[in-house]
Amino acid sequence: MRKRETINLTITAIFTAILLLQTLVPNIGYIHLLPGLPAITTVPLTVALYASLMGIKAGSLFGLFWGITRLIMAYLQPTDMVTILLFQNPLIAIVPRFFAGFIAAVVEKIMSNKNEKLAAFFTGFLTSFTNTALVIGLASLVFIHNPASLTKYLNISSSSQPLILVLIGALGINGLVEMVFTGVLTPIILPALKIVRKKI
């Protein structure tokens, strides 16, 4: 029992260090490709891997930790107005990331006894999807009464479309890249990590 706890603490420490590295070092965890838009993030891969290894409770807490770091960095290192408006809001910064960690662990638990590669793909894909979908959904609710305060920084001066559709159009490319990236790499990395963990 004590050995297992030590192993779990070690895994948590390693993944926490990776997440902090992705957060603090430019263009590792948050890659800016399109000017004026939030960065494409590689952190969902880290969250998907950790949650798959450690389970629902630990995965959810790790997602919460990711959200808190995102909120802090939105204040300490703001990169553009869209990031400031979205991620300086605790609801938008934290809630999607908490549920990303939760969903990753749930999907892994449900599908782990089936095709391992397919389960890992869906775990990674849905981790990113959950984060992106909730960011867009919560942002549309937060700015529902004053959408122009956000859309003007998306280079959209006026639009007859609902805000949620505008956000899907503006942030959808980022989200799609993240989903493919996480979905493809999770089944490549996760099986090896599971083997190593079993041998420890």
| Low-pLDDT runs | none
Shape: elongated
Q: Total number of β-strand segments?
A: 2
SSE series: HEEHHHHHHH
Count up the helices: 8
Model description:
The protein has a single domain (2-31, 38-199), classed as Arp2/3 complex 21 kDa subunit ARPC3 (Orthogonal Bundle), CATH 1.10.1760. It is mostly helical. It has helices at residues 2-24, 43-54, 56-76, 81-87, 90-111, 116-142, 148-151, 163-199, and strands at 30-31, 40-41. Helix content is 76%, strand content 2%. The two termini are 13 Å apart. The chain has a two-stranded antiparallel ribbon with strand order 1-2. Helix 1 (2-24) runs antiparallel to helix 2 (43-54), helix 5 packs antiparallel against helix 6 (116-142) and helix 6 (116-142) runs antiparallel to helix 8. It is built from 8 helices and 2 strands; from the N terminus they run H-E-E-H-H-H-H-H-H-H.
